[in-house]
Write a structure and sequence with these properties.
The protein is built from eleven helices and 13 strands. It is of the alpha/beta class and 339 residues long. The chain starts with a strand and ends in a 9-residue tail after the last helix. The structure holds nicotinamide-adenine-dinucleotide and thymidine-5'-diphospho-beta-D-xylose (TDX).
């Protein structure tokens, strides 16, 4: 494999993956990205032009996609509408991109026999009870809760059906919550860091007992490369780094690491249908492909992420007011009210 098409490469995980892959492989990479509110060319600044090119376009544009997929040895498909809160407010773009966009890509990959890796989320499995040892595995039944997670589940099922019915050479990965640089400020960790930098109190949905299983974005990238290169066709691999923490713990840790009173946050009304707990058993990926995460110290990874937002205000400031305006439009006081 030499030429890789990366969809959604101007977003959070896609841009980190492009940097990681350029540093750790000899691939030439073309990014296809529509530059929605979530895509930023600045996240791809300074990459070597002999190994990297950018195409602005929509993954649901069949003509454009056909030519790009035909020219690639493999597709790594990150492009998606990715934010649960937005999906509760306006679901249609989630169907257009996550379902129709994925359909458009796999049709092109089928026509050209192109290797396809589909990036998905642990949210397709629904949620788990709090304080329970159970974790998601590759055989957990699908049970998505939100418009976002149901459209991601739909896209996974399309890929599985294209493997079985048409022999598509595809793999799927379902990863837990990522953190690291270049994450949009609408998401939990960057929203709180940038609030604090702006002198605004962090916002915790409900009582903050919900648990997410955090992984550094570079560990997600290394797992995707391992699956792309050595994963078995037709298989699904769960990616996670044993990083379960409640939202309350995270907010308190961010405040503490930024030198603030750890109780200086607001409780705001909860997200409707809010999944309680995600937890990943990544045993298959570790046993089959020998993958292991590199970031074992969450506090150190969080410190580096805080420093990145402190030092890259030119990157996030243009997004911040719009993201907070969206929270205000979405109502339910998620922007500032106390519960
Ligand atoms: P993001 O919202 O930061 O980036 C999405 C990118 O896709 C943006 O650059 C956007 O411009 C682009 N895009 C959106 N619609 C498009 C379209 N129709 N055509 C072309 N480009 C389009 O998202 P992210 O957090 O980087 O997530 C990337 C992928 O990883 C998604 O598939 C998501 O479901 C999955 N995922 C994310 C997480 C997480 O914690 N963020 C965890 C597991 C899986
Ligand atoms: O201001 C906030 N306060 C708060 O308490 C925000 C924005 C979020 N939260 C809570 C909701 C979640 O329990 O924090 C947790 C994380 O929220 P998000 O960052 O919105 O992530 P989540 O809904 O868990 O989904 C993420 O992980 C799985 C990504 O956005 C998805 O793309 C990925 O599939």
């Amino acid at each position: 494999m030499e030429k890789i098409l990366v969809t959604g490469g101007a977003g959070f995980i896609g841009s980190n993956f492009v940097r990681y892959a350029l540093a750790n492989t000899a691939y030439r990479i073309t990014v296809l990205d529509a530059l929605t509110y979530a895509g930023h060319l600045e996240s791809l600044a300074g990459l070597p032009p002999e190994r990297f090119s950018f195409v602005r376009g929509n993954i649901a544009d069949a003509g454009l996609v056909d030519g790009l997929v035909a020219a690639a040895d493999a597709v790594v498909h990150f492009a998606a509408e990715s934010h649960n809160d937005n999906s509760l407010h306006e679901p249609r773009p989630f169907l257009d991109t996550n379902v129709t966009g994925t359909f458009t890509l796999i049709e092109a990959a089928r026509r050209h026999g192109t290797r396809f890796h589909h990036i998905s989320t642990d949210e397709v499995y629904g949620d788990l009870p709090l304080g329970d040892p159970a974790r998601f595995t590759e055989t957990t039944p699908y049970n998505p809760s939100s418009p976002y997670s149901s459209t991601k589940a739909a896209s996974d099922l399309l890929v599985r059906a294209w493997v079985r019915s048409f022999g598509l050479r595809a793999t799927i990965s379902n990863c837990s919550n990522n953190y690291g640089p270049y994450q949009h400020v609408e998401k939990f960790i960057p929203r709180q860091i940038t609030n604090i930098l702006d002198g605004v109190r962090p916002k915790l949905y409900g009582m903050g007992q919900n648990v997410r299983d955090w992984i550094h974005v570079d560990d997600h990238s290394s797992a995707v490369l391992a699956i792309l290169e050595n994963g078995r066709i037709g298989e699904t691999y769960l990616i996670g780094a044993d990083g379960e923490r409640s939202n309350k713990e995270i907010v308190e840790l961010i405040l503490e690491r930024m030198g603030q009173d750890p109780s200086a946050y607001d409780h705001v009304p909860d997200r409707p249908g809010h999944d309680l707990r995600y937890a990943i058993d990544s045993g298959k990926l570790r046993a089959e492909l020998g993958w292991a995460p590199s970031y074992s110290d969450f506090g150190a990874g969080l410190d580096a992420t805080i420093d990145w937002y402190r030092n890259n205000q030119d990157w996030w400031r243009p997004q911040k007011a719009a993201a907070e305006a969206r929270y205000r439009e979405q109502g339910a006081g998620r922007e500032q009210g106390r519960q």
